[in-house]
Specification:
EC 4.1.3.30; globular; eight-stranded parallel β-sheet; methylisocitrate lyase activity; 298 residues; 8 strands; TIM Barrel; Methylisocitrate lyase; magnesium; alpha/beta
Length: 298
Amino acid sequence: MTGLLAAATPVADKRIAFRAGLRSGRLQRLPGAFSPLVAKAIAEIGFDGVYVSGAALSADLGLPDIGLTTLTEVAARGAQIAAATDLPTLIDADTGFGSPLNAARTVSLLEQAGLAGCHLEDQVNPKRCGHLDGKAVIPTAEMVRRLGAAVSARRDANFVICARTDAAGVEGLPAAIDRARAYADAGADMIFTEALVEVADFEKFRAAVDVPLLANMTEFGKSPLLTARQLGDIGYNAVIYPVTTLRLAMFAVEAGLREIDSTGTQSGLLERMQQRSRLYQLLRYSDYEEVIHDRAHG
């Protein structure tokens, strides 16, 4: 039953693999998963890791991405997704859910939940989507305290703590770079450069910061949609596609529901559906049946 009901790879090994990937010189690609089933598809297709987006998690709960989700909700969903595959899972921890002490508890619970890492951002609480106008950031010193508390709470040294800065669109790129340096000095293992608007911005961050960098290739936002090759050539270490799978799924769901509403049947949608056999393959249905059969006749 190895790897059937949960990932075969121990959590500690996933964290080691994530760190090794960030040091490998090869861009680590982490599509967003809004469910464990999506995570299984990400793993089967051959990506390097899984990402759990706060925006996607909020949307899946029917809520906007304005800091309404709780640490308990995030940790629970993260645990389900992280356990579904042998890939490392990085999760969005927003602002750490409060004070520096809350950020410390956030890291503690996300470690317990089996995540390979999390990112904390320098927005004020409650936060806004990183690609909307009207954001506000906390002082650098306050974010340094937030990160310091998070780093000190870490028990597994391989758990990756990533610092996200939203300052580029608020204070300008030079200030965002200064913040990134301060965050790295505070112990951040990776910097998430949010909402950059030009390729040159990505290049300037890479030239100025020594630690691994994470790019956000979200659709309909402020950043150009750079290819994995472009990001790798610039020298970025990881890229997330946070809401892509949810957007794809919801587009298909809405189109299908409209057709059922207008025609009274789903018969015209069958070619646009995942087949039952493919779902069972992804779920390893036959492996479960073998276990049931063996136990019934053992």
